[in-house]
Amino acid sequence: MDILLIAGLWLDGSAWDDVVPELTALGHRPVPLTLPGQGDGNASATLGDQLAAVLAAVDAAPGKPLVVGHSAAATLAWLAADARPGKVAGVVLVGGFPAADGQAYAGHFPVEEGAVPFPGWGPFEGADSADLDQEARDRIASAAVPVPEAVARGVVQLTDERRYDVPVVLVCPEFTPAQAQEWIAAGESPELARAAHLDYVDLDTGHWPMTSRPRDLARVLAEAAGS
């Protein structure tokens, strides 16, 4: 199965470099995406441009692909399910929850000179990054690409309720499945609250499991593809 890999803010397709060979060895075809504005030099890219790139990859797949969204890109994966509910085999959300209709894609980090730069490790101290050594932190930070404002502040538009029938797996790295269930029950993720097929996977690590536990993450993704 084709497994489309969408990294979160500031990351390009190389974020999945350690996951790709593991998925290939497990018999799948991983397709890491470098999004417009996050690695291709297009500083004027919009959220619509990024979604178009994801949908182009969905449409190019020979069958129904599994769409994986990490962190903020959980919303992009969910937007793909909304736009192609009959074409997407399932969605895996890694450490992220999809924004609701009418919300900003990523409105929680400040804009500087038309882009949202990587803010450093301060906002991620604790469970998010405790499993990353200094080498891993330096590697992520050095590869980080400022996200165009028109991406981060783009408004999410969801239109097809058939998305709720697309199977969803929520991978819980820096939080537990029990915490995720509590948040959803409390109304903090109205989209996942309406998902008809939602499974939880506990992956005890930090916010960047493609760096900290790539083999285990690949196994989780392969299992999701198999189901």
Automatic annotation (TrEMBL):
**Classification via PANTHER family:** AB HYDROLASE-1 DOMAIN-CONTAINING PROTEIN-RELATED, ESTERASE_LIPASE_THIOESTERASE DOMAIN-CONTAINING PROTEIN
Sorted alphabetically, which keywords does the UniProt record give?
A: Hydrolase
GO MF terms held by the record: hydrolase activity
Name of protein? Alpha/beta fold hydrolase
Where does the AB hydrolase-1 domain start and stop, copy by copy? 3-219
Q: Which InterPro entries match?
A: AB_hydrolase_1, AB_hydrolase_fold, Sec-Metab_Biosynth_Hydrolase
- On whether Hydrolase is a keyword of this UniProt record, the answer is yes
